[in-house]
Amino acid sequence: DTGVSQDPRHKITKRGQNVTFRCDPISEHNRLYWYRQTLGQGPEFLTYFQNEAQLEKSRLLSDRFSAERPKGSFSTLEIQRTEQGDSAMYLCASSLERTLGNTIYFGEGSWLTVV
Amino acid sequence: GDSVTQMEGPVTLSEEACLTINCTYTATGYPSLFWYVQYPGEGLQLLLKATKADDKGSNKGFEATYRKETTSFHLEKGSVQVSDSAVYFCALIAARGYNKLIFGAGTRLAVHP
User: Fold this and answer.
1) CB spacing of A103 vs B44 below 8 angstroms
2) Phi, psi of A18 (to 5 degrees)
3) I need a surface site. Which of A23, A34, B74, B81 has the fewest CB within 10 A?
4) pLDDT tens across A20-65, in order?
5) What is the mean pLDDT of residues B22-37?
6) Bridge partners of B33?
């Protein structure tokens, strides 16, 4: 399977703990995105990388959140000192820089439950 | 700012019924428009897209036409199947949006035999 892969698929953590999610984009894709989706809502943009550069961060991305994409390949999203409000599905997506409107491919998401 | 508004669900239909899910948008310039589908327990899949006014996107029997004058991109299907049961998301990428998708809240479709 050469799609976007995310790990872990599910994570249950206690409030105050740190968690990290990993995303492996489609191999030739230079753009990588993180979104957050809560129950009954559409995905909300968190951040975007072009190669290894983080070009945009949403105001939703508080200082407890950090994302990296070393070497422009896989990416990690870390949440420090988790809160119950962080419970959501974290979606990773990737695309190839081309003309406007090229397809963005999503992974299956990483579910986070903070107890 | 840019935004997408979808009709609220759930939409419940019998098999072979006609489907319309309304979607309107607010954006400057000429955004690209998309419909994504999310089946239970799965990630988002692109269903169809349109990148300029009057374009019609189509896939798997679903269609949507980019209407600039009404800022709409309604999803339609002439005859739904049980396997179409899913959540459908309308989304846009602004003209200068670096391919950043902005989603609506989603509409759940349940199709019964």
Assistant:
1) no
2) -95, 145
3) B81
4) 999 999 998 999 999 999 988 899 999 999 999 999 899 888 899 9
5) 93
6) B50, B92
